[in-house]
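To: structure desk
From: M.T.
Subject: fold request, one chain
Message: Could you run this one when you get a chance? Sequence is below, nothing fancy, just the single chain.
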Amino acid sequence: MVVGELTEEAEVVIIGGGPGGYVAAIRAAQLGKQVTLVDRNELGGVCLNRGCIPSKALISAAHHYSAAKEQAFPGIETTAALDFPKVQAWKQSVVDRMTGGVKTLLKGNKVTVIQGEVFFNKPNEVRVMTEVEGHNYRFEHCIIATGSRPVELKSIPFGKRVLSSTEALALNQVPASMIVIGGGYIGMELGQAFARFGAKVTIVEGTDSILPTFDAQLSRLVGRALKNYKVDVHTNAMAQAVKENENSITLTFTVNGEEKSVSAEYILVTVGRRPNTEDLGLETIGVKMGDKGLIEVDRQCRTNVPGVYAIGDVVAGPALAHKASYEGKVAAEAIAGQSSVVDYRCVPAVVFSDPEIAVVGLTEEEARQEYGDVAVGRFPYAANGRAVALNADAGFVRLIAAKESGLLLGAQVVGMEASNLIAELALAVEMSATLEDIALTIHAHPTLGEMVMEAAEAALGSPIHVIVK
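Reply: Done. Structure tokens follow.
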């Protein structure tokens, strides 16, 4: 044995302390397992440190600043001054509070936490390298939860003026201008946030619309909001090359074969994420891999190697924190001998854009393909008393159900608080609720939640507050 290197027995080893890994660790510990969690960076992963939490903190601050600056509410006049370093300090305090909570939870559940790099030696053994020494851990079960990182464009590599979301969230001043390559949810959230803070934002998207994975009726409302902040949007645009100067950077791109260029202080690249599955030694133990570096797993998150599981961004499906946490619970319960399996029918997706977008279950097109005839109920924010009183009447709630049974198959919301409204609808899909179940549930008045009930009534053909022709 090499001096300073130890071999220890471990019941469950979890690689990665993000929302998949730390949740799996806590759940496994609750089920009586001895758990060792290893992460090379900070607990909380990208989500808490460089993604979900800091981005939503900045989005919240941007919303408050723009609302004050624009005097957006009738009869209220305000003045607004922006101290962006203070905003960033507050954002970091939010991050620190949340990551501190994770540390407390892991300690309270008696999870051993190690900061280090992990490499598989054998199908049932990993080597963990810390700053001072190496340990070999022979495990009974292991969960891979190493997350993902931003995709880098070969022709436009990250650098001083080409940023990933990580660097953009850490800027100490609002840039005068910014080009966002990629009009998906990350690009839209951060692009709108910086536009609200006062930056001149240009979005360059390769497909024919922003938010291309969402229904056009949903993304259209976000497109209208972009115009309010004078955001330039180029669709069907392919980024080609950049030329960097001392104080700016110029992007050359093509739109339908026509070459164009735009200059800005920074370029933010948000064209997707890549799973962190390299440098783990997965090939050493023969883990079966699928497309784009993803690990193949079954419905209990098992890989083809006995005792080795994988969850989150390293397996197929959307790279969402709540999906990773859900899979972490399933994997932990499978390790404990329970019959838990993943069911992705009701994984909601949310865009914290202006206005917010939230969806769950099947789209109308998917529902028609699978179930044939469907019932669709749509209710506008403009007909909801609470939305009008909030001066936020842009948006709608839409429900899709099987025509004959009324079984709710999917839902989409665009508008204020869509991210919170989708929870009731996710529950309804999960529990196989019908339109009648939702319509008969008394919703408090005046609330935004009433729109869910009203959309169900519309789908049933008995709407009260809208006229359906």
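Reply (cont.): The chain has a mean pLDDT of 95. Let me know if you need anything else for the meeting.
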